[in-house]
Amino acid sequence: MTRGTQETDVRGTAVQPGAAPRAEVMGDGGSAATTARRRFRRSLPLLVGAVVLAVIVLLNLLPGAEEDDRPLSPGNPAPQGARAVAEVLAAEGVGVVRVDSYDDALEELDAGPATLFLNDARQYLSATQVAELTGASVRAVLAAPGARQLTALEQEFTQLGPAPLDFGGAPATSAQCTDDAATAAGTLSGTGTVYAGDVECFPTVVDGATDGDPGGSGPTTGGLYTTSADGTVAVLGAPSILSNASITEEGNAALALRALGSTPTLVWYEPTGADIVSSGEGIDPRTLLPPWVDPLLVWLLVCAALALAWKGRRLGPLAAEPLPVVVRAAETAEGRARLYQDSRSVAHAAATLRAAALTRMARRLRVDRAAPAGEVIDAAARHSGRSRLDLEQRLLHTPTTDRELVLWAQEILDLEKEIRS
Question: What angle is formed at CA 135 by the lines to CA 129 and CA 138, rounded to 5 degrees?
Fold first, then answer.
């Protein structure tokens, strides 16, 4: 056994005979304060993260001012909102009634002559619901409805497909129809979905096969603003012209005001997921998800990739090391002592020191190493002249605090010096 393990202080570090013990290392006051500071520094990042997370959760739970950020919403002042159109209509004497449910929309339409503006971008409503709403209104303007939603209407409309986009921006399109609202507008600057119907305004050519002609491959012409023969139902394939950012371009404002302001009341209906009915019409489940789901999935995918890269590089490359590894006895003893100190294992540290002291005393007194502690104590009593009771009290005592452990280790060290001398 090396000299570093023959004589150890309370931290397990090798000491020279006669050297002063490092008793100040594990006193109650200094050791506890040092350990507390060390643990606080280690847990500081976790505490900061927990506080930040708690603040974020609290801010999300606290009720705040609800902002209207839905596209083409009459209360949204952002560029993609339609607050400007709603305020101009209200200034002209048109009562703009905003509803968020199917039942409220039917109730408002049944209350008197009203125009319906249906903005169902996610196609929550079924074809039957759309047909009931248009039947209850004096005039209905549908903002880019899906092909499925047009199948139950008495008027015949067909979705042809998206209008081609130019990198330089959508060119202005002239009306070229007999509808009064489109004629007053003159030109339209928006783009969107092309429809076929009785009266097709702002004609646009769609290339390739379309919903109306699935087997076709040639160009098809439709309109960005299509109405029925009597003008009671209009399909606006370019709803972006109603936005605050585009309403002042070309004849967008004229078309919007004439199409939506023909009656004293305008029912502005934006369906939600609560309006979905089990109609068996094959609703796309992806339309039921909120708009932030797709960006969230992309963000989670990026985070997962970064986590894999970080975890894969965290341990670094494998290092080849020749074995066996030679480590100084003093280093291993000090490392074990630090573990005992951090875990506050006073009893375990005392048992380790006692076992090492009895082993060294047995070798010095020529007693079998496998002999029980009582035989070693008897031999030590005969050799040192001390009473057996005194030696038992010194060797078999178990300290309970760090300070008692330091003092007890000093007594054991003094006893070993007496036996060696």
Answer: 130
Grouping H, G, I as helix, E, B as strand and the rest as coil, residue 189 is coil
Rounded to a whole number, what is the distance in angstroms from the first to the last CA of the chain? Answer: 20
Q: Phi, psi (5° rounding) for residue 115?
A: -100, 135
- Is there a domain that residue 48 lies in? no
141, 257: one domain: yes
Per-residue pLDDT band for 28 (boundaries 50, 70, 90) equals: very low
Structure tokens that stand for 67 in this block: 């902002």
Residue 405: Cβ within 10 Å count: 22
H helix runs in 62-101, sequence order: 83-91
259 versus 280: the higher-pLDDT residue is 259
Residue 356 pLDDT > 70, yes or no? yes
In the chain, the number of structural domains is 2
Residue 44 lies in a domain: no
Residues 138 and 211 in one domain: yes
pLDDT tens-digit series, residues 283-309: 556 656 677 788 888 888 988 888 887
Cβ–Cβ under 8 Å, residues 17 and 28: no
Residue 275 lies in a domain: yes
Last-in-domain residue among 243, 271, 295: 295
| Cα 238–Cα 240–Cα 243 angle in degrees, nearest 5 | 145
Q: How confident is the model at residue 277 (pLDDT cuts 50, 70, 90)?
A: low
Domain that holds residue 340: 332-421
What's the pTM value of the predicted model, to 2 decimals?
Answer: 0.54
- The C-alpha atoms of residue 4 and residue 336 are separated, in whole angstroms, by 13
Q: What is the pLDDT of residue 236?
A: 93
Query: What distance in Å separates the CA atoms of residue 48 and residue 371, rounded to the nearest whole number?
Result: 55
Q: Which of 252, 249, 250, 271 is closest to 260 using CA atoms?
A: 252
**Is 367 contained in some domain?**
yes
What six digits make up the tokens of 232?
A: 């009671």
